[in-house]
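Exercise: predict the fold of this chain.
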Amino acid sequence: MIGACTPKDEGGPTSVTSAGPGGTGETESTAGAEETGVPTGPGATDSGSAGEISGSTGGDPTSAGLCTEFEDVDPAPAVQISLHNAGSAPVFLFHVTFCDSVPLVEMAGPDSDVPTPWTHPTCSFTCGQAIDGACGCPAFCPTDTVLMIAPGGTHSFAWTGAIFNEVSLPQECGTDCGDSCLQQTQAGSGTYKMIARAATTAIVCEDPNVCTCEPNIDGWCDVQASGIGAEPRLAEAMLNYPGQQQITLTFTD
């Protein structure tokens, strides 16, 4: 089965996953989203994969063909997603919680309300990675952070154009990573709805007296905190993919 990070001992409120997707400034990454708008498909395999697969199954020529359909697809084009704060006060979004990055934007589509799995957890792995035996968690667990976007600030990141769905991986393709994996495929054409969920405060801060941070040149920073307040702020937008490759979701008062 797909692995999971071991959460750190200290408690924290369960995150409300806010979905989010190349960025132009200093950006943070989520699995499936790349910093500074230079996306690469995670775990993409090359033409050597088939040879590796045959070797791992005793040279059975049918195994390579069987496993080819599970290899990672290199997605394109990428989409730059920007979150802009047009309000008069900072907004706060979950960023990292319980050892994992939180998608900043929820996505549904194409042309439907079906959630689009455009990112995947840090400790999960694609089928291409599983075929190569490259699975496991990072060596460290990042601390909880909440993204703060100051008034007038913009935080940008990328959606590579990939989607991830859990599938069963045939034993012939390798069992080092378990019997299931996330199949990385190209997102379909159509209209995608995006929603970003924020609040006007950060809570459960590492320093209770400092639930803020100093914004960078783009107007955002990470607060050492484990939660956000109950005052909701929503930003929504519709993306026509693949024709539209930039989109901005704007928070207002």
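Check your answer against the key: The longest strand covers residues 190-199.
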